[in-house]
Amino acid sequence: MADKDREKWDRKYRENPLLSEERPPCRWLEEYVPEGDGKSVALDVACGTGRNTLWLARHGWYVDAVDISSVALDILNKRAKEAHLDERIARRLVDLDRFEAPRSDYDLIVETNYLDRPLIADLQTRVRPGGYFIVDTYLDHPDNERKNLQSDFLLQAAELPLLFADWEILAYEEYPNEDETHRMMKAGIVARKLPLSIH
């Protein structure tokens, strides 16, 4: 499966110029993520060409940026060097079906336009108490213009808060996308891991 996925995404990035254009970061980063303190470390899951990674690096974060597409990571690498941010970014070509995060104390994990429920559950253990987790991806919704997506890879209404039931929910919204080729409903959450209680 990994080889097919890698080939599919490499081809998409090669053939679709829109995917390679620089885009603004996920809105939740700008609204809720504090400036990095020079030591803050984030994980950008399915980072693509790095819209979130580059924003974080510009704002004082170190970032582990992981994706299945070498084409996307090459684009990210070029942009990071042009912006003199490459020392803040560790790029990793990975199969997310078998991905194991390299750290267990991230200050932030961000996962956008990608859904893997078991991976979310695993990565929740990789966030330090007080750290943040942002998920922003597509909903299974009758108004979606793309009808051929597998429901396994789409969120259900009100599902994300249930996945973060033990976390502090700072924001949650279901909303129509605005700047993509197909009109789709999305859901986004910003959750903060509660500090460990002392008994």
Write the SSE topology.
Blueprint (H helix, E strand, L loop, with lengths): L1 H14 L1 H4 L6 H6 L8 E5 L5 H8 L3 E6 L2 H13 L6 E5 L12 E7 L4 H8 L2 E12 L20 H5 L4 E9 L8 E8 L7
Q: How many helices?
A: 7
Strand order of the largest sheet: 3-2-1-4-5-7-6
Radius of gyration: 16 Å
| N to C succession of SSEs | HHHEHEHEEHEHEE
Shape: globular
Report the uncertain regions. none
Portion of residues in beta strands equals: 25-35%
> Overall pLDDT, averaged?
88
Count all strands and give the number: 7
Helix content: 25-40%
Biggest beta sheet attributes: 7 strands, mixed
Query: How far from one another are the termini?
Result: 46 Å
Give the quaternary arrangement of the chains.
single chain
Find the structural class using helix and strand composition. Answer: alpha/beta
Please tag this protein with its features.
199 residues, alpha/beta, 7-stranded mixed sheet, 7 strands, 29% helix
Describe the model.
The protein has 199 residues and is an alpha/beta fold. It is built from seven helices and seven strands. Helix content is 29%, strand content 26%. A seven-stranded mixed beta sheet has the order 3-2-1-4-5-7-6. Strand 6 and strand 7 form a beta hairpin. The model has no long low-confidence stretch (mean pLDDT 88).
